[in-house]
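Morning run. Coffee first, then this:
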Amino acid sequence: MGAVLMTQAVADVMAPGDHGSTFAAGPLICQVAQVVLRRISAPPFLAEVQAKGEYLATRLSQHIRPHRLVRDVRGRGLIWGIECDAEALAVVNAAYRHGLLVCAAGTHVIRLLPPLIITRAELDEMVDKLAATLEDVVQEMVA
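And here it is:
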C-alpha cells in the first residue's frame, strides 16, 4: 500500500493513468495495511521499539564508535548512519560477506535499518558482524 503527496501544481497536470499502483485499493492489501497500522501504533509495540533503539544506541556507542575507521555514529531509534574513513561501498560489500545487509547513504556513510521486530540478540549479532566488517575493510585498505 502506498500514498503519494504532491503539490497542487503537480496534481493539476496529472491525468488518469499517469500514476498507478499494482495493489491500489485492493481489499486484501487494505486489510493488511489496517492490521499493520494497528500493530505498529500500539503503545506496547512502540515502547519496545524505543527500548530496542536505546539498546542499539548503547551497543553502537560501545563497540562501533571507538573503531579507528569510524568518524561518526548518528541516528535515532532503529535508523543509524555510520560515517567511515573508507568508501561506503567497500563497507557495504564487506558487510554482505558477513551476512549483514546495510546500504550506502552517501560516499562515506553506511545506513543501518533493522526491522522493527528485531530482537536484542539479533541486534547484538548485527553489531558484532559490523565490527568484524570494519576490521575486514581496514585489512583491505592496508593490503
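Residues 120-142 form the longest helix (23 residues). Good start to the day.
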